[in-house]
Amino acid sequence: MRSFDRQKVPLPKLSSLNFNEGPLIVEIGAGVGLHPISYSQQFPDHQVLAIERTRSKFERFQRRLENHPQIKNCIALHEDAISVITHLIGNNQVDKYFILYPNPYPKKNDQNKRFYAMPFMEEILRTLKSDGEIILATNDLQYKQECIEFFQRVWKLELKEQSLATQGRTHFEKKYLSRNESCYNLIFTRKSTFGSA
Ligand SMILES: C[S@@+](CC[C@H](N)C(=O)[O-])C[C@H]1O[C@@H](n2cnc3c(N)ncnc32)[C@H](O)[C@@H]1O
To answer: What CATH code is assigned to 20-190?
Structure first.
């Protein structure tokens, strides 16, 4: 795989980000914002940065967030997550990444558009704390299997947990569950070095 060239990544509109104290949670492709809003409410001491690049979805997210003025720990950004993470997030800063129902790009020639196969994954690993987690959900069995294979073989991550999501955390998860589709939830961590020489 070619290595990631951060110089070629466009700068985000924002030039810096200030976070509250507490664990930093980054959601890539937050859609209309159901998950970051409920997560922020559930964990008020965490700082949630939720990034969505599609304007129409972001505007629905923003309106939803404005209806919860008590939430102070959620930053909603209309940006490309690749630009924001590459240029505005420091090394070992992120406790959890959420990538929930990314577009699976099922066409054979589109593998390089799938998150787990992108050289950009280097930036996710650079910014993830050593005990951090990447949580990825998909309803696509082939995507799930290929994701596990890539994360383990290429990115040297460990599959800590896999389960079927049942809660309807996001707009897409609700839609898939209503069609009785399986929603696979995967939690990855760095490989444990405990006991190694
Ligand atoms: C299939 S939707 C899922 C949305 C939401 N996570 C859900 O489950 O309802 C995938 C979303 O990821 C967003 N997305 C894809 N790549 C992105 C990127 N590089 N930066 C920000 N958003 C991105 C798309 O705009 C789209 O809204």
So the answer is: 3.40.50.150
Residue closest to 89 by CA, chosen among 44, 26, 157 = 26
At residue 177, the pLDDT reads 98
Residue type, 24: L
DSSP assignments along 125-166, one per residue: HHHEEEEEEEEEEES-HHHHHHHHHHHHHTS-EEEEEEEE--
CA 28 to centroid of ligand 1, rounded, Å: 7
* Closest atom, ligand 1, to C-alpha of 82: 19
Put simply, whether the predicted model's pTM sits higher than 0.90 gets the answer: yes
Q: Whose CA is nearest to atom 27 of ligand 1?
A: 31
Report the sign of the C-alpha dihedral through residues 100, 106, 108, 112, in that order. negative
